[in-house]
Amino acid sequence: MTLVAELTNLNCTRKDVDIDLLRDLQLKLLNRPDLADSAAVFSAIGSETRLKVLFLLSEAGELCVCDLSDILGQSVSRVSHQLRKLKDIGFVKTRKESPTIYYSISNNSFANILVNFVKMGGLTD
Fold it and tell me: If we measure between CA atoms, which residue out of 43, 42, 47 comes closest to residue 78?
């Protein structure tokens, strides 16, 4: 990204522009590579199935993929894919009890906030 050097001329109606402010904001944005991680988290939780998985794990403590598959009425492959996405962002952890892998909510503050949000019924009054 090149820093603002001159104003864009796209029929913009702005009158007074603070170029220093624009440069400062660009630099602040460049110093926030974590925003991509945040976008990945929001993308991962933007699935009804993954929210259901988090809800179920919060209710049961831990479940294996077969349990989740039976409850959700979805294939083991599909549920495994959802669990992998949740694990990738640190929302679920695993415990292996040969040959079964059990999933539970990780000790992640955002995951806990999200679980509480889901348990409360989301944005309903």
Answer: 47
- 34-38, 52-56, 77-81, 109-113: least confidently modelled range: 109-113
Q: Residue 115 — very low, low, confident or very high, per pLDDT cuts 50/70/90?
A: confident
Q: Which of 65, 32, 72, 36 is nearest to 51 (CA)?
A: 72
Q: Of the candidates 69, 67, 70, 56, which has an alpha carbon nearest to the alpha carbon of residue 105? A: 56
- 67 by Cβ neighbours in 10 Å (0-12 / 13-18 / 19+) ranks as middle
Higher pLDDT, 24 or 120: 24
Assign 102 to helix, strand or coil: strand
Residue 71 one-letter amino acid: I
- DSSP annotation string for 30-75: HT-THHHHHHHHHHHH--HHHHHHHHHHHHHS-EEHHHHHHHHT--
Is residue 116's pLDDT more than 70?
yes
Walk me through the domains of the chain, giving residue ranges and CATH numbers. 48-119 (1.10.10.10)
